[in-house]
Write a structure and sequence with these properties.
By secondary structure, the protein is of the alpha+beta class. It has three helices and six strands. The protein has a three-stranded antiparallel sheet, with no helix packed on it. Strand 2 and strand 3 form a beta hairpin. Helix 1 crosses helix 2. The chain is elongated, with a radius of gyration of 17 Å. This is OsmC family protein.
């Protein structure tokens, strides 16, 4: 896996990234740091990637278990250290899983498997941050 990140130039603190799969992503800094607030911050992108990783796992696990899942949202709320390096210290994942007759135990199992076995991003972050999760099941 490879990505290339390039600075957009001396007029600010924006960057573009090209992924190995050929996609482009923009990032920008806060105005107080020289950015123009035109794109997500790099640390927000870490959360975006982690949320995508775990949501992907949860949906795949539920589908493989023949659960009738039709929606999955995960909201990540993170706290960071106050001093440099400002690593994540706490991250809560709130899953809202929508489907028909979903078994709560199956949803809980899917989230647990993602966090403990499959989602490389959340497992990596768990080495430094306290990870918690909550689950809400919505009947379709």
């Amino acid at each position: 896996m490879e990505v290339k990140v390039s600075w957009n130039g001396p007029s600010g603190m924006s960057f573009r990234a090209q992924t190995g799969s050929g996609h482009m992503v923009s990032m920008d800094g806060a105005p107080e740091g020289g950015g123009h607030n035109l794109a997500p911050r790099p640390m927000e992108m870490v959360l975006v990637g982690t949320g995508g990783c775990t949501a992907y796992d949860v949906v795949l696990i539920l589908k493989r278990g023949r659960e009738n899942v039709i929606g999955c949202d995960v909201t990540l709320q993170a706290e960071r250290a106050e001093t440099d390096p400002k690593i994540f210290t706490k991250i809560n994942f709130h899953f809202v899983v929508t489907g028909k007759n979903l078994k709560p135990a199956a949803v809980e199992r899917a989230v647990k498997l993602s966090h403990e076995k499959y989602c490389s991003a959340s497992i990596m972050l768990a080495a430094m941050a306290e990870i918690t999760h909550s689950i809400e099941i919505v009947e379709a």
